[in-house]
Structures are given as C-alpha cells and as structure tokens.
From TrEMBL:
Taxonomy, superkingdom: Bacteria
GO molecular function, one term: 5-formyltetrahydrofolate cyclo-ligase activity
Species, as recorded: Ensifer adhaerens (Sinorhizobium morelense)
Enzyme Commission number(s) of this protein: 6.3.3.2
Residues annotated as binding substrate: E58
Top-level EC class as recorded in UniProt: ligase
Name the record gives this protein: 5-formyltetrahydrofolate cyclo-ligase
Cofactor: Mg(2+)
Length: 190
C-alpha cells in the first residue's frame, strides 16, 4: 500500500472513531484540554495564536483560545482563499464571523491577515513522533511551508482526541512534524 493510500485508510479509521464519540464526551474532553494546556503553552503577550472553530466532531478549542487570549495572545482563524491557500485572519471582539469554506467559519475580509507564532492544528491522526495526517487537502502543509519560506517558524501544536493516535504515520519528505500534541490525556512535546 502506498503512503498516500495508507494515510487515507488511517484518516478514515480515526475519523470514524472520533465521530463515534458521544457529544458529551467530546465536550468534557475539550474542557479538559483547556485545563491541560491553558497555562502550559509558552507564549508572550502579543504572540499570535491561530486556532479554529470546530467542524464535524473536532475538538472544541474555543475554551482554550479564550484562556490564551486572557494571557495576552492575539487570536486568528484560518480562512480558505482558494483551493490551495489558507490565510489567518485576526479574531477580534465584535468582528463578523462568516462561512469561509470547507465547512469552516472565520473573520471576514476586513480582518487583518496575520502570521501565527503558534498554530493549533486540527488533524485526523497522529503518532508518538509528532507526525500528523490532516484532512487530505494539504491546506495546513502549504500554509506552514509558506510561513517557513518567509522565515517565520511557528510552533505547531496538534489538537486531537486520544482515539486519533496511531502506531505510525507514514511520513513523506514534504510532511512537517508537530512540536507538540494536545489530547484529553495531556500536553506532549516531541
């Protein structure tokens, strides 16, 4: 099986496990994650943190984002610009939130575009070495590559439930490993 096919199989398997979690369990796990990492993620006031609003059965990191904002972080959300590109628009109080593609929502076009210092990255699966499988469209891989080409090296923190961990992700040369992962069991550095 090719790495691409293996990734697709692992993605489908782990997303099915995540989807099978009762909503109450996902909510409790999301709140637990905010407790695990709300004061642990290293940031200075003014650091830019990209988060995301949950789609489907994703972790709801809005409580974590609120905690980071209370510590002085500037927040932004991903916005799909075209079939290959996402940018990160600043999330400010009172800013309109609109549909931004792929089932996501985020700030409208009047919000400033920012380069995150810390990226809270959604994923389908991850392993103990920090490799991740995304949703298959490559948006985050390209965004990370674009930021790195500008000399910007954001800290990458994967966000997932424990059930999304796999024994090994078939890493390819273009894949970028995470710096850490946050699950309901805790915050792990790689």
């Amino acid at each position: 099986m090719s790495p691409k096919d293996l990734k697709a199989a692992l993605r489908n398997e782990r997303l099915a496990l995540r989807d099978a979690m009762p909503a109450e369990i996902r909510i409790e796990a999301s709140l637990t994650m905010a407790d695990h990492a709300g004061d642990v993620i290293a940031l200075d006031p003014g650091h830019i943190v990209s988060g995301f609003w949950p789609i489907r059965s994703e972790v709801d990191i809005r409580p974590l984002m609120a905690r980071l904002k209370s510590r002085g972080a500037r927040l932004c959300l991903p916005v799909i610009m075209d079939k290959k590109t996402i940018v990160f628009r600043e999330l400010l109080d009172g800013v309109d939130i609109i549909s931004t593609g792929f089932g996501t929502t985020g700030p409208g076009p009047d919000a400033p575009v920012l380069d995150p210092d810390i990226m809270l990255v959604p994923l389908s699966a991850f392993d103990a070495t920090g490799h991740r499988i995304g949703y298959g469209a490559g948006y985050y891989d390209r965004a990370i590559d674009r930021l790195r080409n500008k000399g910007h090296l954001p800290k990458l923190i994967g966000i997932a439930f424990d059930c999304q961990e796999v024994a090994a992700v078939p890493a390819e040369p273009h894949d970028v490993a995470l710096d850490a992962v946050l699950t309901e069991s805790g915050f792990r550095h790689f």
